[in-house]
Structures are given as C-alpha cells and as structure tokens.
Amino acid sequence: MCTFHLPTQTRVNELHFRTRNLDDAARFYSVILGLTVIERTDSEVLLSANGKGPAMIRFTLDPAAAARRANENGLTHAGIQFPSRADLAFVIRNLVRNEYPFDGGVFQDASESIFVNDPDGNVIEMYHGQPEKVWGTDQSWHNNPVLGLNNLLASIKNEPILKRISPETTIGHLHFNVANFESATRFFHDYLGLEPAMAADGSVSFSADGAHPQIEIDRHKNTIRHAHNSVGLVSYKVAVPCSEVLFALNQRAPIFGYETAPSPESPNLLEIHDPLGFVLEVEAHEKKEDEAPPAEVSSNNKIQFKQRTPVETKNAFSLSTKLGWKDLLSIFA
C-alpha cells in the first residue's frame, strides 16, 4: 500500500460537545475562559477566540444526554494553546477571581499548563509552550504547581484584566484513552498518516509535522466504550490545505473499513467515523490565488515541546488540595 501523510499544515481547529446545560457551558467558555460567542440559538452555541468564524468550540443542547461513566474510554482532555505566557496568566487570573477550581498543573522548561473541568466534566488543559532559549533559566518552580502558579500570576500582578483571550489562541492537541491501542494507532497512523512518537510512560502522540503532537492516546484496557449519546465530545475537526486530501481519505476509507460521508454543511468537509466512537471532520481550506503565503518562522524562534517523563507526570497533582483561594488572591493584594 502506498504511504499517505496528512499535510504538515494540518491542525485541529474545532471541537463539538454535547451538553445538558447550554447556559452553563456558554458562561464557562465565554465569561471564565474569555472566548467570544459568535452564534447562539436555543439548542446550540458557537464560540471562537477571534470573535468571528470559524468556531473553535461548539456546544449542542441535549437535556436527555447520558451522564459520562467513570470508566468510559474517550477524550481524556483537550489542550487549548495560548500564544504567550502572559496570555495564559491572564486567563488563569480570571479563573482565580471567579473562584473556579483548578484540577491540576504542570510547570516545566518546555511548557506551563493548568487543568480545569468545565461544567460538563470535560477536562481542559490550558497551556503555552516556551521558546527553547528560556529552558533552564529558572528551575525554582519546575514540577511544582504551587510555585509555578505563583510565579505565573506574579508576572502579571500589575497588568490590566483582559475580558477576552488572544485571537491567536488555538486547539493544541487532544488526548484520548483507548481500550484497543492497535485499532487507534491503525486509524491515526496507518490511515491518516500522522507521525507517531512513543513517550516514556507508554503513551503515543501523533503529529502531522513530526514535531508538535496533535493527538495523544493512552492504553486503558479496563475501560468501556462511551455511550453514543453521553455528555461530552461528539466530533473533532481538522483543517487541511487542499480538497485533494478529502478525496484521498474517502478513497482509502473502504480499504481500512472506515465509514465516511460528505458533510451536509459544506462540500469541503468529509466526515469520518473513527474507531473511538467519535466523528472526525476533515475540512479543506483552499488558499486563494491572491492570498500571500504565510511568513516563515525562523527555526531559532520555533516553539518546541518535550514529552513528560514519569516523574513530571507524577508531579502534576491537584492544585485544589494544595492551594486555597485566599492564597491565590493574596498575590494581587
């Protein structure tokens, strides 16, 4: 079989969730996280970072949706990537001022991140990647969420409070737990052509460019398949630079036994049912003839990420049990 790879420009750009309370979901992502509601109906809300389309997060109301079970497989967390340390700090300060609980944090050379649960229990990782030139410059807060959070918040103590996150904020990656590791690898690597990389803890990440993980999977043999109508992820969308990719994926799907269908929403959108029980939407973003090519980024300024070691993963403990709101708010006193 010929080797196939998704283009290196491929990016995850939209998540679609099912919720039992549209108002709570909209408030969390707009008021707390700072996304902008770009469309709202009685049954759906769309939010983006740039205040216009396309949507980055979509919620559909289903009052009868089943509650997520503790041992279900599926989405472990979604990573929202901020363009700078300051942008991440602004959002974290907003969480603190609204007394919204953190679920954990990891602070290290390559990146700083905070985990929160949204009102439906979806785990969101908010993070930024630090340029390699600053690695090792300050190790006092490494792998210590308490010191790391203090360090981060102190850096913006005297800055004005922002109401909206940076328009350059993106969906960085998705992390799934799977019962059938081989089936998931076959889909993301063999079928989609994403490059795999094994981490020290046994998880595998997949990327289009071989450097920035976009999909990560962990093996959990004792999990059960999530209910098709449960609260949580419904579909995830990736953007590709040309419609030829849609044709290739549609032609390859029967060979691998995957079901595909053109989307009723757009002729440039292909829906693929993945083996995890979700729908992957692949959307072609054709570049206009008069559109200038994107500026090249110097390799010296390229943001890089490194996999967490078992020690770093162990230190990603819950902040809620280690740090009280009064301690956090005292930073701004």
Could you outline the blueprint of secondary structure elements for this entry?
Blueprint: E1 11-19, H1 22-32, E2 36-40, E3 44-48, E4 57-61, E5 74-81, H2 85-97, E6 104-107, E7 111-117, E8 123-129, H3 145-154, E9 170-178, H4 181-191, E10 195-198, E11 204-207, E12 215-219, E13 232-240, H5 244-256, E14 260-262, E15 269-273, E16 279-284, H6 310-314, H7 325-329
Parallel strand pairs: 1-4, 5-8, 9-12, 13-16
Antiparallel strand pairs: 1-13, 2-3, 3-4, 5-9, 6-7, 7-8, 10-11, 11-12, 14-15, 15-16
Description:
Mean pLDDT is 80; it is low at 131-137 and 290-333. The protein has 333 residues and is of the alpha+beta class. It is 20% helix and 29% strand. It has a single domain, classed as 2,3-Dihydroxybiphenyl 1,2-Dioxygenase, domain 1. Strands 2-3-4-1-13-16-15-14 form an eight-stranded mixed β-sheet, covered by helices on one side. An eight-stranded mixed β-sheet has the order 6-7-8-5-9-12-11-10.
CATH architecture level-2 label:
Roll
Please give the radius of gyration in angstroms: 20 Å
CATH topology: 2,3-Dihydroxybiphenyl 1,2-Dioxygenase, domain 1
Q: What is the H-and-E element order?
A: EHEEEEHEEEHEHEEEEHEEEHH
CATH class: Alpha Beta
| Strand segment tally | 16
Report the β-strand fraction as a percent range.
25-35%
CATH superfamily: 2,3-Dihydroxybiphenyl 1,2-Dioxygenase, domain 1
Q: How is the main sheet built?
A: 8 strands, mixed
Instruction: Tell me the domain tally.
Output: 1
Instruction: Specify the helix fraction band.
Output: 10-25%
Strand order in the sheet with the most strands = 2-3-4-1-13-16-15-14
Which residues sit in consecutive blocks of at least 5 with pLDDT less than 50?
131-137, 290-333
- C-alpha end-to-end distance: 63 Å
Gross morphology: globular
The average pLDDT score comes to 80
Tally of individual helices: 7
